[in-house]
Specification:
The structure holds 2 protein chains of 2 kinds. Chain A is an all-alpha fold. Helices cover 76% and strands 0% of the residues of chain A. The termini of chain A are far apart. Chain B is mainly α. Chain B has a single domain, classed as Amino acid/polyamine transporter I (Up-down Bundle), CATH 1.20.1740.10. Classes of the chains: A mainly alpha, B mainly alpha.
């Protein structure tokens, strides 16, 4: 499973990075690396069955708590 | 530098919005558990309110024509607060993408292929979506024409075959739900299927005639609401009080079609229309996200960040909710508040500030 994950991300990296280096677009390369690193970390933790908080879910519940009324 | 060079015509915009909005025939399932057989009244009320909201969106885009959501925020709220609001919007679109792909995935895993691992459908969906986003807005708009017609034909055809099983008495008693439930249902209906049209503020500036957005938007809204009414009325008439038993009422009601033992198991048509419409939703939000990120960080092109954002969305989707029931809960009680801020409050505040500051100012120091 981990080998599969690493190979998927390797494909993404090898498909994009050479073109970016050739065009000398370092800013794009930085953004690309940051987002890829975050995505890789999350999916690796998911595969290793580490419990991590889900930001998308927590934001919803946080915004709900800002409102003075609810439907519950 | 202009990030998106493609231009779509206003007719294409209409089909684009229609195909985007058609997903409401699937997400209306969250409403059946709240207002049961009165859902069709909630549809009409939500439609009437959405007309006003759509006028707000189109008015914003027409006043500041040629500017997308990120640029509008920069002009209206100033360069710093505007950036913050744009980042919040991008986060909102990412949440939408994640929730829609989870919805799509749980449908396929629960109803059609229960033995398949969860990640398969999401990864396949995102691969196609990435291809579409990388090819640009023109390609997405062109395929939306044929998609919207396929979905509309399937919905109308399937509902015509249901006529045999319909029973008018399932609508009785009309308006038996409490006012609180009714308001909740309208709120859910507004925030989930109707008003996530706010993503189109990213797409409006790439139409050929920026000043005539109202007509295509309203036609698309009306046509999709008609389709939604057909589906909701059909489902209520067939299923009655059994509506709430299934997480997908259209799917359950379509399973009952049996015409001379020849036309059976038409439920797969519902699955196909879900596939097409969710694909369109995800592609639009995906496009809005990558274009927004590229615009905020002043990148030269948005293509390089398409694949990482897709990988991020897949990774977050996989551990979003433990089961589809929790998503149904979140859609009814949690999501409407989240949507209210980004779909009603911020656009209305934007429009008020535009009116007070008399934007756009003449070319000069403000440009």
């Amino acid at each position: 499973m981990i080998i599969l994950l690493i190979s998927i991300y390797a494909i993404i990296v090898f498909a994009e990075v050479p073109g970016l280096i050739k065009k000398k677009s370092w800013k794009e390369l930085t953004v690309f690396s940051v987002i890829t690193a975050v995505a890789f970390t999350i999916s690796l933790l998911h595969i290793l069955k580490v419990e991590i908080p889900d930001p998308a879910k927590d934001t919803q519940y946080f915004v709900k708590s800002l409102f003075p009324f609810s439907y519950d | 530098m202009k990030l998106e060079k493609g231009v779509i015509s206003n007719t294409q915009l209409m089909y684009f919005m229609l195909c985007f909005l058609q997903c409401m025939v699937m997400t209306v399932n969250f409403n059946y558990s709240i207002t049961e057989h009165d859902t069709w009244i909630a549809v009409l009320v939500a439609y009437a309110i959405t007309i006003l909201i759509v006028l707000v969106y189109t008015q914003i885009s027409q006043r500041l024509s040629g500017k997308n959501l990120v640029q509008i925020n920069d002009v209206v709220f100033g360069p710093y607060l505007g950036k913050v609001i744009s980042v919040l919007y991008i986060w909102f679109f990412l949440q939408l993408i994640i929730n829609y792909s989870y919805f799509f995935n749980s449908f396929w895993v629960n109803f059609i292929m229960p033995e398949t691992p969860h990640s398969v459908f999401i990864i396949l969906l995102f691969l196609i979506s990435m291809m579409a986003v990388r090819s640009g807005i023109e390609v997405i708009a062109r395929c939306s024409f044929i998609f919207s017609i396929i979905v509309a034909a399937m919905i109308v055809g399937v509902n015509a075959l249901k006529i045999k099983d319909m029973d008018i008495s399932n609508f009785m008693p009309i308006l038996s739900t409490s006012p609180k439930d009714f308001i909740q249902s309208v709120h859910v209906m507004l925030t989930i299927p109707f008003c996530d049209m706010v993503a189109f503020l990213m797409i409006f500036p790439y139409t050929s005639d920026n000043k005539k957005l109202r007509k295509p938007a309203l036609i698309a809204l009306t046509m999709s609401t008609l389709l939604l009414l057909v589906v909701v009325l059909g489902n209520i008439a067939v299923a009655g009080l059994r509506l709430t038993n299934s997480t997908s009422a259209s799917f359950a009601a379509t399973r009952e079609i049996d015409i001379a033992n020849v036309l059976t198991r038409l439920d797969v048509l519902i699955a196909i229309s879900l596939l097409i419409t969710v694909f369109m939703k995800i592609t639009v939000f995906f496009y809005a996200i990558v274009l927004g990120i590229a615009q905020i960080l002043k990148l030269r092109s948005y293509q390089p960040i398409v694949a990482p954002v897709g990988a991020l969305a897949v990774a977050v989707t996989l551990n979003l909710y433990p089961s589809a029931m929790e998503q149904a809960y979140a859609a009814r009680f949690v999501w409407p508040f989240n949507g209210t801020i980004f779909e009603f409050f911020l656009p209305i505040i934007t429009l008020i500030i535009i009116a007070i500051r008399k934007l756009p100012k003449k070319r000069g120091i403000y440009e």
